[in-house]
Structure formats: structure tokens, C-alpha cells
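Protocol step 4 of 6: structure prediction from sequence.
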Amino acid sequence: MPSQVIAVCVGNVCRSPMAHALLAVALRERGLGVRVSSAGIRACVGLPADPTSIQLMAERGIDISGHRGRQLLPKQVDADTLLLVMSDDQAKWIRRQRGRLASQVAALGEFTVGDIDDPVGGTRGQFERALGEIEEGIEAWLARGWAVPREAGANS
């Protein structure tokens, strides 16, 4: 099990803040001392989470209104960090731009839907679908004990 998980998407205002909050709750409820955060590969640095993300999380009793977008930086990642991305394109970007982190990248939807589409600018239904896929991905990772698949670090 990693000591830290960073949920990663593009802007760090929709998917990854929701994943961060849900992961933190799930890990805390299981008594697992894993640090959780989120970041973006092209982050909207300093911007709050999307209002629809905030609303959907509030409906689950989780407050992400204080979230502010931040960029994924190599200095945030230690040797025991798992980067959970929302899409294969994000994994490829990290492997290309941040090669030393390649073996630490895996897709949140790896065991479920694959890519989790970005709902930014979309309907509430698109946000709900993304959130549902994030929840499924988290449950699948928890069920597998956080084992990173062997091919996760392979160049794609």
C-alpha cells in the first residue's frame, strides 16, 4: 500500500478534487494512514473546485469548497506515492514529461470503466456520471489492496 495517493486530472477542479475527498474518507473509514491529495497536469492553479463538483460532494456530506487547484510537481511525489490518473492520456503525459514517475502512475478506472471523462463545462448528469465512475474506481482499488498492476509503469 502506498503512503500517499495523489488523484490527478487535467485542471484539478472537477474529477481529482472529488476523487481526493472520496479517497480520504474511504481510507480514513478503513483506518488506513495514507495521505491523500490532488493535482492537475495543467492545473487551474488557485481556482476553486467547479460549483457542480462542490454541490455533488456536499450532497454526500463532504465539503470541498476550500479546494484550490494545484499543479502536479515532481517534488510532491516521493518514492512511495501512487498517482491515480483519470485517463490514459494523462498517464502518457506524466510518463513523457515526468519520466521518473512512470512506475508510480495508474488509472483510477483501471479495474472498472477505463477513462473517466472530464465533465468540465458539461451538464450535471455528466458530473454525476464522472463521480459514479470515481466511486467505482476507488472501491475497485480498495478491493485489490492498492496493488499497482505490473504494466502500470510501462511506456505506452
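Step 5 (inspection) to follow. The first helix runs from residue 15 to 29.
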